[in-house]
Design goal:
Length: 266
């Protein structure tokens, strides 16, 4: 009996030891997991990273077509909801006309910046100096421009251009804000070199806005071939009217937000 009691005591001691070791191992794994998560969550204070997924934004052509036809496009390529959630909260506009076509919410238009951004690694300064308008449409922010077809310049004379297939269709969508026609951005900010390296020279402006009356103007123009431009050209120019609520500098490829404090000027 005494021998049996002794073996039970030893068995209980072994079980207790195994339990303590198991708890210690679990605590170690939990601590390691927390450290890994914390290290992955650490980003530069000047940038927000959103799962390294491309930022596309609302399709201005789809918005134009929705306003023009009254149809809701459920398959728009839109910006991640996490980016939209960062827009400062506000009371939604009471606009039944826009609600009917699903546009009674903030829109996000992404405008690529092929130039106008300069970074100096010596003092970690980033300078933005650009105009979102084109020379052909001052006072308008160009959201989309698609040219389909080949130009006949240097290839054909004007009377033969159309017959030889030198026909172009130009689809242009622009954004008009207000009478001030603000389209320029001038900014100077400090960005750590690691954050700048993360974007790899890929910059864009994200415009958070909501539509305002008259919402849309849409017109088509046709130009017959000329000696200077021997091309038959049809241009559709659509203008969206909106109120800007925020202007951000982002990297559309990585989802990095470099600053949320940009402003448009004349």
């Amino acid at each position: 009996m005494s021998n049996l009691k002794s073996r039970l005591i030893r068995l209980n001691a072994v079980c207790a030891l195994l339990c303590i070791q198991a708890l210690a191992h679990a605590a170690s794994l939990q601590a390691a997991s927390e450290v890994k998560a914390a290290s992955q969550a650490q980003v530069s204070p000047s940038a927000d990273i959103f799962a390294a997924r491309p930022v596309v934004g609302d399709d201005p052509g789809a918005v134009r077509d929705t306003l023009a036809t009254g149809r809701v496009h459920a398959n728009w390529p839109t910006l991640t909801e996490r980016l939209r959630d960062l827009i400062p909260a506000r009371k939604p506009p009471r606009n039944l006309d826009l609600a009917k076509v699903g546009l009674d919410h903030d829109l996000v238009f992404v405008v690529p910046l092929p130039y106008g951004v300069l970074y100096r690694s010596q003092d970690h300064s980033l300078t933005v100096k650009t105009d979102l308008a084109s020379d052909d449409a001052p006072g308008m922010i160009v959201l989309k421009k698609i040219v389909a077809g080949q130009s006949g310049r240097g290839l054909v004379v004007a009377p033969e251009a159309k017959a030889k297939g030198f026909v172009q269709q130009i689809d242009l969508v622009e954004l008009k804000l207000d009478a001030s026609s603000k389209t320029k951005i001038r900014a100077h900010l400090t960005v750590p070199q690691a954050s700048f390296a993360n974007v790899d020279g890929d910059f864009a402006i994200a415009l958070m806005c909501d539509l305002t009356p008259p919402y849309l103007s849409d017109q088509r123009e046709h130009s017959d071939p000329t000696d200077d431009e021997p091309t038959d050209i049809t241009t559709r120019t659509s203008i969206l009217y909106a109120n800007i609520r925020a202007v951000w500098l982002i990297s559309p490829h990585t989802g990095t937000v470099l600053t949320k404090n940009l402003h448009l000027s004349n």
